[in-house]
Amino acid sequence: MKKIFAYPRALAKKRTHYCPGCTHGIIHRLVAEAIDDLEIQERTIGIAPVGCAVLAYEYFDVDFQEAAHGRAPAVATGVKRVHPEAIVFSYQGDGDLASIGMAEIIHAATRGENITVIFVNNTVYGMTGGQMAPTTLPGQKTTTSPYGRDTATVGYPIRVCELLATLDGPAYLERVSVHDPQHIIKAGRAIRKAFATQVAGKGFSLVEVLSSCPTNWGMTPTQSLNHIKETLVPYYPLGVYRAPEEVTGDDE
Q: In 10 A of CB 14, how many CB atoms?
């Protein structure tokens, strides 16, 4: 009998620490499946962030390096330049990437570094207590914006894909979501394409994944998935913001 569904080789067989209903686990699997499909496990090096995915090095069966808060793109740049044959990716949340790490991600992107970034956007600081993040939506309540994000005093959320798309350096930028099976399949194709872009030597690639945070949103897992669909997606439109030629992420 032909096996059509199996545990990814690039994913370590270890229970994760993520909260019930968190979609980090889904995204981890999609990354591992892309690594398996492209047969790059033995030369892949991941860069772990500070944030909910701080223990990512325990969940993937590839080499990993921990980075200081926000510095994953800089660390990834150094690793890639020392080991140009390696496939290097960073896995970062919105607080890590879009706040303290904003300079690193912008300069890595504008230099066109041949690395891949998996950017998980759940509009809140997840690990440290649910504070307002650069991606927190207008009116969204957090522990540091208990009355809702006030754009008059703290400004508007940052749309990372749109921001990076203004630069000449990036080769591939796409925003996806994992709130239902259809979108999970599309997210998997985008992540595979991001890695394929690096394998082909095309340059900087980033996939932004809209993700849930039931704990800090104060929602059930089901409610959090509906929240992505009904609230996050309208503010953060899904789609391709930059695409390289002659690189495919699926079998179509």
A: 11
Q: Which two structure tokens, joined as six digits, stand for 252?
A: 């179509």
Q: What is the CATH number of domain 24-242?
A: 3.40.50.970
Exposed, middle or buried, 65 (CB in 10 Å: 0-12/13-18/19+)?
middle
Residues with pLDDT less than 70, the chain: 246-252
Cα separation, 27 vs 118, whole angstroms:
9
- Residue matched to tokens 């496990």: 41
Tokens standing for residue 1 = 């009998």
Give residue 90's pLDDT. Answer: 98
